[in-house]
Amino acid sequence: MNLITVLFIAFGLSMDAFAVSITSGLAISRLRISHAMRIALFFGLFQAVMPIVGWLAGMGLRDIISGVDHWIAFVLLTVIGIKMIFESSKMKEDKASDPLDVYTLLILSVATSIDALAVGLSLSVLNVAIITPVVIIGITTFLFSFAGVYIGKRVGHLFESKIELAGGLILIGIGIKILAEHLA
């Protein structure tokens, strides 16, 4: 898998965390750099760890599903993308009251990184080494989340749902690309 594809995957995966970070920025009354760092560290760390978990799970399945691995990657990425597109159109009324609370951050981090678990599984069945994607996904999510908190504080209410829509479309596009490469 080339670096450009990994960057697009990282971008797509980070959109959930970016959208939640924007929402968090809206909810924090006196924003400090330590607040943005805390949120970004949680999201970046979970987005980096979850693909490893998925990749390890996929290692045990690789021999069994090697003939259809490209279809599995296509289906997983497409389902994740469709889920993100659907969620971008829903009104989000279940905003956390304190986005800096550790328990809240844990829940939000897990919720926004489930997609990364499925991507890790896809990378495993495609026999892709996990270290480079994990580092890129974690750093990308950290940077987007950090920026998202500040963007949310300034203008977050204007475009929160459009970000998840873009991320979903990117993941679907990558799934189609993987399928096309294996079928061609």
Count of extended strands: 0
Q: How much helical structure, as a percent, in the residues?
A: over 70%
Q: How do the helices and strands follow one another from N- to C-terminus?
A: HHHHHH
User: On the 0-100 scale, what is the average pLDDT?
Assistant: 83
Question: What would you note in describing this structure?
Answer:
The protein is mostly helical. It has one domain (3-183). The protein is 83% helix and 0% strand. It has six helices and no strands. It has helices spanning 3-27, 33-65, 69-89, 102-125, 131-155, 160-183. Helix 1 (3-27) packs across helix 2. The model has no long low-confidence stretch (mean pLDDT 83).
Short structural summary:
This protein has helices at residues 3-27, 33-65, 69-89, 102-125, 131-155, 160-183. The model has no long low-confidence stretch (mean pLDDT 83).
Question: Keywords for this structure?
Answer:
184 residues, elongated
Topology:
Blueprint: H1 3-27, H2 33-65, H3 69-89, H4 102-125, H5 131-155, H6 160-183
